[in-house]
Every structure is written in structure tokens, then in C-alpha cells.
Amino acid sequence: MSIADIKSQIATSKNIVIVTHKNPDGDAIGSSLGLYNYLIKAGKQAQVITPNDYPEFLKWMPGTETVMVFEAATHACKQSVAAADIIFCLDFNTLKRIDELGEEVRKAKAFKILIDHHQMPEDFANFMFHDVGACSTAQLVYDFIHALGDKNLIDEQSGICIYTGIMTDTASFRFPSVKAHTHHIAAELISKGVKHFTAHEKVYDSYSADRLRLLGYALSKLVVFPEYRTAYISLSKEELEKYNFTKGDTEGLVNYCLTINNIRFAAFFMERGDEIKISLRSKGAFDVNLLSRQHFSGGGHANAAGGEYKGKLTDAVKILTDLLPNYKTALLND
Ligand code: 5GP
Ligand code: MN
User: Are strands 299-300 and 304-310 parallel, antiparallel or unpaired?
Assistant: First the structure.
């Protein structure tokens, strides 16, 4: 199936639904709303659905007020998914990543288009626009619109969403996944009127005082294993509550571990309900996607992955620290 076929599918469609992964991040929301604003401009009907709510620092992008949250409006979301003739699946590679919404998408009659950059995508979509080399799904959304021949329909509205997706998934254009192409896109978006500084301010300068204090506390708890070039931080439910935790307050925290000289592997553990959410990051060849798949029922990218553990916080941490000797050679090699 060619992109020309996809173009005609979109042209004849009446109801388009865009779904993205649970605990949506900047790329999930940025890519979804980037595509949404483009489709609206192209004269289509579109609806973004997220499995659960997302942080306040992402609730400013154009179209955010139209997003439906499956957890909060389950019935309306089910109806929307069932009535869709196209479903775009953005920034995830397995239906497991969208919880119960996954079952609705799986049984929906719609034509499914996956746009994603995570490793090892499952085979559930009818068409895949997939590249593990892409820095973000937002970049792929730009490339997808370009491939449809509709670059001229990207405007300030869709542009700032795409910019934000790229910015957040690359920690502000710093990872090796950022290519000249990424900067060309950023330049193109700025020339279309996108205010890049607004995206940076809205996302990074919107902390509450509690969030900044939580960051200070979390950093004071840092554990470092120089002999394994590893550092981690863990936060219990009580600790999070003490700082009035709200969704998104721990976003990016794991990256601080990698700011220590010589550290190659970083982990962040957080108690959430009856499970532990784990964020893993690495520099160089150490593959946290594989580690997360093998030990924390997760996945992601080679240098940024996440997972879960059903059980106690201290046990999740112990699993990781017990594993370190096995990975010593890999961690010291690079
Ligand atoms: P984060 O640590 O920021 O939550 O996620 C890092 C990367 O791993 C993101 O690309 C995210 O989509 C992916 N990821 C996070 N948690 C999970 C998970 O539980 N399962 C899978 N397959 N991927 C995850
Ligand atoms: Mn992404």
C-alpha cells in the first residue's frame, strides 16, 4: 500500500480518531495534536483520545480542549472509536500501551495507521509509518504530512504541537537521534510562525514550587554506583504525597542522574497505586529497551525506556541493583 492510497483513504474518510499512549508525554500530545490540527485544516473531522489524563504543562497546545480521556469519558470514547473509519495510533508500538482502549481499537472496523518510532512494533496496524531512527513521533507526523504532499497545510497551530513533540522527546534537541533533518523541520516551523520560546517556557518554566522542592528532595536521595556507572532515584507514595505530587511532577527527573560525569545508566522508580513505574535512560550502546523488556515488562528505545513492577518499591530497586554485576562489562565497555 502506497502513501497515495493513504491519501485517498483520508480524503474519503468521515471520522478520524487519533489515539496515543497512556501517561501521555510531550511527544504523545504534540504529535497527536499536530496531526489533529493538520486534519482539521484539511477539512476533516478528527478526535484525539488519550487512555488517561496528561500533565498541565502540556494542556496549552492548540486543540487540547477537544481531547477526550478514555478513563473519564469511557462511553463517548468507545463510541468514537467504533464509529471511526481511520484510527491513527501515535507514539506507541503495542496495544498494551493504551490499556483497555487497546481492545476497542483492536476490534474497531477502522483502517489503522501507526506512526511511531519505538523499537519492535507489534503487527496490529494496516499501514505503518515507522522509523526507529526518528527522534520523535512528532517528526514523523511532519514527514507523514509532507509525504501526503500537504506541507503547505502545516501552520502555526499544528506547527507548535509538532515542535513541542520534537523538543520534549529530544530533551531540547540534544540527543544523538537529532539529525540535520530535525533542525530543518524546526527552522521550517519557525518560518511558519511557530514561537519556539513559547514551547520551551510552557513546558519547562511551569513548575509549581512543590515540584521544584520535590526535585530538590529527589536529588538529595540520589544513589550512585560509580563501579557500574549507574545512578538511581526512588520515590515512595508517602514522599510524593509530602510534596503534593501531581501528574508530570517527576517528568525528566531520571535525566539528572545522567548529568553526573561518567554515568552511563540511570533509573527512576516511583510508587504509583499498587505498582512501581520505572524509567530507564542510558548513554551510548547500553540498551535499556532490552533490559526493560526482560525485567520490567516494558520497552521503549535503546537509550530511553520504561516499565512496571507489581510489588514493593524496595523489591523493584533490588531487582535492578542485583542485575548490575551481570551488566558490568556492557556498562564499562563504552
Ligand atoms: P518514560 O520513562 O519517559 O515514561 O518513557 C521512556 C520511553 O519508554 C518512552 O518512549 C515510552 O513510550 C516508553 N515506555 C515507558 N513506559 C513503558 C512501558 O511500560 N512499556 C513500554 N513498552 N514502553 C514504555
Ligand atoms: Mn516519542
Answer: antiparallel
- Across the chain, how many H-helices and E-strands are there? 14, 12
Q: Look up the CATH superfamily of 3-204.
A: inorganic pyrophosphatase (n-terminal core) (3.90.1640.10)
In the DSSP assignment, the letter for residue 327 is: G
Nearest Cα residue to atom 13 of ligand 1: 300
C-alpha cell at 219: 536529588
CATH number of 209-333: 3.10.310.30
304 lines ligand 1 (CB under 6 A): yes
Residue from 203, 234, 255, 279 to probe ligand 1 pocket by mutation (most atoms less than 8 Å from CB): 279
How buried is 134 (Cβ within 10 angstroms: 0-12 exposed, 13-18 middle, 19+ buried)? buried
Average pLDDT along the chain = 97
Which residue out of 21, 253, 258, 320 has the highest number of ligand 1 atoms within 8 Å of its CB and is therefore the one to mutate? 21
Please compute the mean of the pLDDT values over residues 256-280 and round it to a whole number. 97
308 within ligand 1 shell (Cβ under 6 A): yes
Give pLDDT, residue 181. Answer: 98
Ligand 1 atom nearest to 23, measured from its CA: 4
User: Domain residues of the chain, as ranges?
Assistant: 3-204, 209-333
In tens, the pLDDT along 118-151 reads 999 999 999 999 999 999 999 999 999 999 999 9
What's residue 203's pLDDT? 98
Distances 153 to 67, 90, 145, 222 between C-alpha atoms, Å: 21, 20, 8, 47
Among 98, 92, 108, which residue's Cα sits nearest to residue 52? 98
* CA gap 252, 167 in Å, rounded: 13
Q: Which amino acid is at 305?
A: A
Cβ count near 117 (within 10 Å): 24
Whether the predicted pLDDT of 333 surpasses 90: no
Whether this prediction's pTM lies above 0.85 is answered by: yes
Write the pLDDT tens digit of every residue in 162-171: 999 999 999 9
